[in-house]
């Protein structure tokens, strides 16, 4: 059974309800935490919203931000890389009319890395190539122990050959 997870606008409505009931911001926060646990708004956020309500601002949706709008969308960048994954940051920056650092930050945000001159999407599988899973109920206890401790079982221990000096040294 799924559990109801409130969004921030819903929680702001709950705060407005407690504000109208003449509760304090701290009291409303305590009730939110008791009711919604980790999904509750922070104490500071509750205080900020109570301050807005006291100033007769009852709009629960986010206001427009004054920050600089994005100069290009991620989709544009992805399309350019689909067309030619070997483009450099400099080339991408010129096409999109932004600085290389902006392109670099956006590529990092998209989980892209450059290897051998081509851009690739990073996947967990590529970052952890030597991982494996073990069914703890059916696996051989010796294999489980070796997987957890990182020690190789005796049957897989490497064989070391003696070191002989190079014949021409």
TrEMBL record:
Any GO CC annotation of this UniProt entry: site of double-strand break
Every Mos1 transposase HTH domain range: 8-57
Pfam families: HTH_48 (PF17906)
GO MF, one annotated term: DNA topoisomerase binding
InterPro entries xref list: Mos1_HTH (IPR041426), Transposase-MT_Hybrid (IPR052709), WH-like_DNA-bd_sf (IPR036388)
Biological processes per GO annotation: DNA double-strand break processing; DNA integration; double-strand break repair via nonhomologous end joining; mitotic DNA integrity checkpoint signaling; replication fork processing
Classification via PANTHER family: HISTONE-LYSINE N-METHYLTRANSFERASE SETMAR, MARINER MOS1 TRANSPOSASE-LIKE PROTEIN
Name of the featured protein: MOS1T transposase
Organism, as annotated: Pseudoatta argentina
Lineage: Eukaryota, Metazoa, Ecdysozoa, Arthropoda, Hexapoda
């Amino acid at each position: 059974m799924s559990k109801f997870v409130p969004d921030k606008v819903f929680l702001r409505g709950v705060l407005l309800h407690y504000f109208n009931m003449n509760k304090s911001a701290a009291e409303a926060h305590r009730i939110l935490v008791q009711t919604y646990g980790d999904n509750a708004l922070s104490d500071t956020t509750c205080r900020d919203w109570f301050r807005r309500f006291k100033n007769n601002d009852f709009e629960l949706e986010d206001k427009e931000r004054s920050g600089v709008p994005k100069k290009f969308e991620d989709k544009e960048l992805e399309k350019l890389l689909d067309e030619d994954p070997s483009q450099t940051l400099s080339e991408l920056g010129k096409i999109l009319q932004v600085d290389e650092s902006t392109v670099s930050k956006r590529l990092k945000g998209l989980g892209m890395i450059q290897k051998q001159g081509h851009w690739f999407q990073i996947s967990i599988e590529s970052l952890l190539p030597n991982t494996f899973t073990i069914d703890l109920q059916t696996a051989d206890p010796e294999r489980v122990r070796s997987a957890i401790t990182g020690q190789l079982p005796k049957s897989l221990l490497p064989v070391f050959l003696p070191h002989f000096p190079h014949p021409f040294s």
